[in-house]
Amino acid sequence: MTSAPLAVAAAERYRAAERRLWEHYGLGPRERFVELRSLALRLRVVEVGSGWPVLFVPGTGGTGPYWGALVRELPGCHCIMLDRPGWGLSSPINYTAGGYAHTAADVLCGVLDALELERVAVVGASIGDVWALRLAARHPERVASVALLGGGPIVAEAGTPAIIRLIASPLGAIMVRLPANAGRLRAMLRRVGHGESLDAGRIPDAYIDWRLAFERETDSMRNERDMVRAIVSARNGLRRGLPFDQSELAAIQASTLMVYGTCDPVGSTEIWRWTIGLLPRGELRLTDGAGHMPWLDDPTGVAGHVSRFLAK
């Protein structure tokens, strides 16, 4: 077990890497923690800007500065970026206790209560897409609109993302304990569609350094494997309760935008066009040549889609 002084030192090393990435983007975030006593959770949020409140829910590999290239292009928004349970500097949770869909929605609703926010727009990415839509489905009065960035395990037809299958497998137990390696991280970013941006320098060294510190100084990847094993069978794929069925999507009334990069390996243009068509107020925007995190490849273009959507 890690001693308290060592854990504090690791957290500070991680914060230092975060600060360098925030500085690269010219942003100075505010950090705070919220307590969700009903779920025995202490969660970190970081905030940038002022204006209309927008809650950001990341996918695997994301905490606050993961969004930096995007949020600096959204000056009229109060951007509230959550470290999901077990992620970054937030405490972990047992996802098998209450059912994944209900747990995801109730965590986000609890965050809104703790922040005294009645109604927000929600931006998700990857598995954060599921969280955003589950909140809109379970607590529609709290959600003004939803923006989904990149493919996620929203529907079974999209399949299980390769990285999620790997984390769920026995090999994943080894993978999440391997020392972080810049070459391996860059290879992963290429596999999810960001090769051109790496070659062009659009993904800065400070991003790589932050992501390595994330793996080295926090227990995020080990906690994420616990979550993944609760929602994915290495043999059979997504478990019931994670993806939406058609009737669940048809019942979501919040205006929903999906921005999908054409080099994103999760799903396909055809699958997401069909999926978004099931939503009563859904729309799809494509970002040519972008990968799984499309704002890394085209932050201005993606921010334009999001800001125009939020302004409706």
Describe this structure in words.
This protein is α/β, with parallel strands linked by helices. The protein has one domain (4-310): Alpha/Beta hydrolase fold, catalytic domain (Rossmann fold, 3-Layer(aba) Sandwich), CATH 3.40.50.1820. Helix content is 44%, strand content 18%. It has 14 helices and ten strands. It has helices at residues 4-24, 68-71, 100-114, 127-138, 162-168, 170-175, 182-191, 195-200, 205-217, 220-231, 246-250, 269-278, 294-297, 299-310, and strands spanning 30-36, 41-48, 52-57, 77-82, 120-125, 143-149, 232-233, 237-238, 255-261, 282-287. The strands form two sheets. The protein has an eight-stranded mixed sheet, sandwiched between helices. β3 (52-57), α2 (68-71) and β4 form a beta-alpha-beta unit. The longest helix has 21 residues, at 4-24. The protein is globular. The N and C termini lie far apart (50 Å). The model has no long low-confidence stretch (mean pLDDT 92).
Overall structural domain count: 1
Question: What would you give as the CATH superfamily?
Answer: Alpha/Beta hydrolase fold, catalytic domain
What order do the helices and strands follow? HEEEHEHEHEHHHHHHEEHEHEHH
**Number of distinct beta strands:** 10
Computed Rg: 18 Å
**What's the main sheet like?**
8 strands, mixed
Name of the level-1 CATH class: Alpha Beta
Individual helix count: 14
Measured between the Cα atoms of the first and last residue, the distance is 50 Å
Spatial sequence of strands, sheet with the most strands:
1-2-4-3-5-6-9-10
| Bulk shape | globular
Please state roughly what percent of the residues sit in beta strands, choosing from under 5%, 5-15%, 15-25%, 25-35%, 35-45% or over 45%: 15-25%
CATH architecture type? 3-Layer(aba) Sandwich
The name CATH uses for the topology is: Rossmann fold
Low-confidence stretches: none
The percent range for helix content is 40-55%
